[in-house]
Amino acid sequence: MTTAQKQASFPTRLKALSYRLEVMLTVGSRISSVIHRVYNGEEMYCKRVLQQLAQDRKDVKAIRDFNTTEPVASAWAMTDKLMDMELRGRINHASEVVNKVVTPLNNWLNEAKRKLRAVVMQQQAWKRDLHKNEDAVIGNREQCLELLESCARAQQDEAKKKEETAQGGVSFFSKISMGVTELYRGSFPELHRRVQMAIVDYQAKIDAANKRMEKYLKGDLLRVCHEYRQLAVTTVANIKTFLGIFHQLHEKQMVKTKPSVEALEKFLNTMQASGGIPAMLKRAVEDHKKVLPDMMKRQRYTYELPVTMEEVKRNIYSKFGPGGKPRPPSIFGSSLEQIMKIQKENKALPPLHRKMAIPSAMDALISLIEKLDGLKTEGIFRISAAKEDLNHLAQALEKGFITGKYKFSSTSPHVPACMLKRWLRSLKEPLVPFSLYQEALQIVRPDGGYATGEPTPQQTEQVREFVKKLPTIHRNVLYTLIKFAHKVNAGADANRMNLSNLAVVLGPCVLRNNQINTQELVREARASGTFTKLLLMTLKPAPAAPKSTEPKKEEETAAKEEETVEKNVATPGEAAKDSTPESKNVPEGEDQPAEQNEEEGKE
């Protein structure tokens, strides 16, 4: 059972156990109702028969010389006495069963139902409390965002005012406009103070919500399990006790119902002590404790404002940095050229990271797949991952790309594999630029039909010449991807992903059309997979990206450039292992989120 399944199964088990307890109490009520109806009817029937006997006695006395007629009179008297004793004994037995079994059993069942309703209502109250805390966190976040935007606009107005003053003074209408705006939204210092107070309150709300969630996961849920267990044990024990009393009374009085008594005795002997509920609850609690750390990590609220308190103190209120310049773009939705420029100019990164010929995020993902034994995992790159896991990994990638320290909490190789595909698809321009899309199609279907089977010598030469036309960074990333695909193909017996299957799943990452025409996309969807398969079969053994880039002169030939790339190849993940030792041991958890581009490609 996976972690996500265990997380989802624990509340489901509690709900199922609640229904099971309700069914057990309903069964107890039904048993009590049946016994009550039977013996109430028995008592009423015996009373009617006694009334009939009394009437018969009156009728017999009216018969002349009946009492002196023998042996009829003696037989009648004996029969009347036996019937009277039998009927009165049955009435007493019915009354005893109602008083000793039905009434106390009904009283206890009503009390048990009240306790069960109280537990369910308490659990619902806890859930409402959690939802209330969540709404409070969301409301505070929205308030903080509005104040940050107001501060950003106020800061822009202050700058505009200083600029107009420097150019010769502020016009009368500008003064009126700025005064009205300041009167409406407050002065800049007041907004600054309100932002700090709002962020402090927002952080306090997050801490309170996390503490309440921790209390619910660690204590409240386990307390519910304890209450359910007590109800289950006492329910079955009391039902068995009252049925035992009924059995004793029935055995003493009702000799003619021996088959029913034996069946009841067999039922009592074979009946489990608690219907299996304690064992089921014990397993559920053990499974819950195993996944509790991961649940607490996943269900924590995180700081989601675009700026921190330290940045607000430095007069930074929006996603724009000092001077109104945009902050560094995300690795998702950007071009490879932008990503490599940031990687080379970021002085906070280790020197080896800045010299890498491919984005360090790609190298880290490939290393993580290999570390999690993804080369032997069945369906790698084909089986999708949970959206929540992908979001956590995306935040870790964003932070690691800026700091150079990649810290991942993923335990399944499917998560980094899906993230690698998502990142490649989110690029502004695919590995094969849009300008070369039609030329790639001509290689795949030179005569209007798709190429199949082994590549021809002509196609092999066309592919090699085509790859030389790619931009350097695109070619390096493509080489790295192809080399890793051949590694996956080497373990095809275990992972069931040969070159054909890899071409299908990686095709959209390599080649795609920028047209939004649906019919055109459907008609040429097969082209990406076929072209990717042609690349995989032509460029084997596949070269990898160089470990570091060296300036190349423009007059060097394409053949010499390719030879240089092949000579400086490095195994994927090698650079990350050398420059980021933190990525070797994947720690548990990632507390701080990073900004994620809204245009991130969906899996």
Task: Describe the fold and architecture.
With 603 residues, the chain is mainly alpha-helical. It folds into two domains: 3-298, Arfaptin homology (AH) domain/BAR domain (Substrate Binding Domain Of Dnak, Chain:A, Domain 2, Up-down Bundle); 336-583, Orthogonal Bundle (Phosphatidylinositol 3-kinase, Chain A). The chain is 70% helix and 0% strand. It is built from 21 helices and no strands. Helix 11 crosses helix 12.
* Low-pLDDT sequence parts: 271-275, 542-603
CATH superfamily of the largest domain: Arfaptin homology (AH) domain/BAR domain
| The number of domains | 2
Query: What CATH first level of the largest domain would be assigned?
Result: Mainly Alpha
The CATH architecture category of the largest domain equals: Up-down Bundle
Task: Return the average pLDDT rounded to an integer.
Answer: 74
Number of H- or I-type helical stretches = 21
- The Rg value, from CA coordinates, equals 40 Å
Structural class, by secondary structure, is: mainly alpha
State which percent range the strand residues make up: under 5%
Compute the separation of the termini in Å: 24 Å
